Amino acid sequence: MSKLVSKKFVLPFILITSLFFMWGFARAILDVLNKHFQESLSISITQSTLIQTTTYLGYFLMALPAGLIITRHGYRRGVVMGLLLFGIGSLLFIPGAMTTSFAMFLIALFVIGCGLVMLETAANPYAAELGDRATAASRLNLAQSFNGLGCILAPVIVGGFLFSGDSGNVAVPYTVMGLIVLCVAFMFTRVDLPEITAPAEDADTNKASGTAAAIRHLWSNRTFRFGVLALFFYEVAEISINSLFINYATSDGWMTKSTASVVLSFGALGLFMVARVFGSWIMSKVAAEKVLFVCAVMTILGSLAVTLNAGHLSHAGVFVCYAFEAIMFPTIFAITISRAGRYVKIASSFLMMTPIGGAVGTFLMGYTADITSMSTAFIVPATGYIFVLLYSLYALKLKKNV
Predict the structure, then answer these.
(1) How far apart are CA 129 and CA 310, in angstroms?
(2) In the chain, which end has fewer C-beta atoms inside a 10 angstrom radius, N or C?
(3) Helix ranges (DSSP H) in 163-307
(4) Looking at residues 53-66, what average pLDDT do you find?
(5) Percent of the chain with pLDDT over 70
(6) pLDDT of residue 382 exceeding 90
């Protein structure tokens, strides 16, 4: 820990890392809701992908305002505001369940998405900056490992509840989560998170140049533009597979839906978490760009294996994707943010727009599944991984030129 995090920042790092767990839990519940709403509301796979579309639309629309708010008011206030939106959105599931309104559920998920992007916009760059820049990717992967823990627990807890013999009320887990989140928001109003500031000369320049100049500077940077696109396509792949894992696992009789929710938690997402921890250790010894390249190649092979619909080979391909995609988000984020200079907070807000790619990917994968098969639909995440491969090659070239 001492090599990754400066001693004076250990407590802030622990507090911020707890948030990674919370939004991992919230995002993983979405993967259960798809199958639950298909059955309880009698909607198609394509219609159920509106769950991801609405949530990540909140990410897309709120990301830049989140960056501006955090730039002006600091990390702690950004975290508190994000937690409040997260908690309120969760409690909106109560009127949604009372009216059995899919539209009301979508409104609640939109509010949750707005809250989550506030948290992520603050926490990702904050965790990356709490130590030496050379270990930023490794440090962020460590923090993101707790995001993986939240992802593991959500499907098995919520899926076990919703897929029990009697159909569970979806408002119950969201009400509990909302109350916990609001309590955590209160706790963060009482803690002090030190601001990570730019050097004095950079801060003066940033203040004078303004937000418009910051945006122009970032988008004139080819590396930053490529990083944003790489994260977008990563989200196309990662979120679409998570969202429709239960559909895939049940499509050919491989698993029941209750078994699939447990396997998603402890098998797929458990593997994801372990791989992220292992990846954090590997990147303390091997350049992050090289690790990203190897992982991109393996995920492409894994997703293409699924499209073959070749029984156990295809089933194994899904788990290959989970194992090797684990380090992608924090690694791409850290590499890209390292090129943002003094505009880290605004840069983070643009990077946190990219989960909208998950909405696009889930819709395309769901539509492809409806007109062909769940196996064939894995061509969508394969396309996303191919773009990550291109980014890794670019990053390797960039590193050689430094």
Answers:
(1) 45
(2) C
(3) 171-188, 200-219, 222-243, 245-251, 257-262, 270-282, 288-307
(4) 92
(5) 94
(6) yes
User: Is 196 a residue whose pLDDT tops 70?
Assistant: no
Tell me the two tokens of residue 200: 């004095």
What pLDDT does 15 receive? 84
* HEC per residue, 171-206: HHHHHHHHHHHHHHHHHHCCCCCCCCCCCHHHHHHH
Q: What is the pLDDT of residue 199?
A: 47
- Token pair recorded at residue 280: 């954090």
How many C-beta atoms lie closer than 10 Å to residue 175's C-beta? 16
Q: Which has the closest alpha carbon to 306: 237, 361, 364, 367?
A: 237
Q: CA 280, 283, 289 angle in degrees (round to 5)?
A: 125
CA quadruple 247, 251, 254, 256: dihedral sign: positive
Give first-to-last CA distance, the chain, whole Å: 28
Q: Under 8 Å CB-to-CB from 341, ≥6 apart: which residues?
A: 202, 217
Among residues 315, 273, 309, 306, the alpha carbon closest in space to that of 382 is found at 306
Q: Examine the pLDDT at 320 and tell me if it is beyond 50.
A: yes
Res 318 pLDDT > 80: yes
**Cβ proximity of 150 and 25 under 8 Å:** yes
**Residue 6, SS3?**
coil
Q: Which residue shows structure tokens 């119950």?
A: 172
- The average pLDDT across 357-372 equals 93
